[in-house]
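To: structure subgroup
Subject: Chain for Friday's discussion

All,

I'm putting the inputs and outputs inline so they're searchable in the archive.
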Amino acid sequence: MGRFSLSLFDGIKILYSIITNGKESVAANEYSVLINMRLPRIILAMICGGGLAVAGVGLQAVFSNPLVSPDTLGVASGASFGAALALLFRSNMITVQFSALCFGLLACFLTYILADIRGAKKTIMLILSGLVISSLFQAMVSLVKYVADTEEILPSITYWLMGSLYTSNYKSIILGTPSILIAVSILLLIRWKMNVLSLTEDETKSLGMNIRYMRMTVIICSAMITSSVVSMCGQIGWVGLLIPHICRMLFGSDTSKVIPASISIGATFLLLVDTLSRSVAVTEIPVSILTAVIGAPLFLSLLRRAGNSL
């Protein structure tokens, strides 16, 4: 699907030509559109959608709050500042990704340090610290936009921060996805243990588990996923908030079931939204706009159906 028309048969033929190394048997423009433009976007959309959904499940389990999303700890704002700063200096996309990843992880580290004042380390302190760090980095993003050149730099920063997969290519995927895959794999391996995050520290000690180590592991993995996603395609909201709710309504609150379901449903959701973003209008619509337009009414519907069970 897209503005360049390709039939299902043509798509299968092009993919088959790769397996048989018969690239010359298909039209060059059709091959370029499918393999060099659409396939990277499909891969990136599925990785980012599944990753954001898993990050949302993990953070909601850590804070025992279904309204927590992957940008709660300020990671998304920190990564956005890193990307905006790199764009301000006219850096290439590889540098933009690296800068976003570093500043996203830095924001998570600052949030954790700020929450550790006087040894508190309580979840409410993490949330409040995340709000502070997020506001700080949002202000710094505004400062970067204020000093940016209005003719060339500012439009690219603004459009990139809206969230879009239009810059997807195999190089950016190779650079950004390993951290997502590693973090998701870790959360998959410990998904059975994550059910105890809702218990008190004394209860988890009686089960022989270190609750602080578990929480820190989940937070770091979620931060890695969020900062990597932002580094590749900007801020994309609602996926990490909406998809975990849908999965819990379908499969219950058992994290061992919710995380695999979130990977699948999150990947499918963002893939469908990205397909709409590049197909419904002459110019491409930023993905974050569509996720908000689709996600907000759907989330309100889920809240009404769930009632007081949340």
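Points worth raising on Friday:
DSSP finds twelve helices and no strands in the chain.
The chain has a mean pLDDT of 85.

D.
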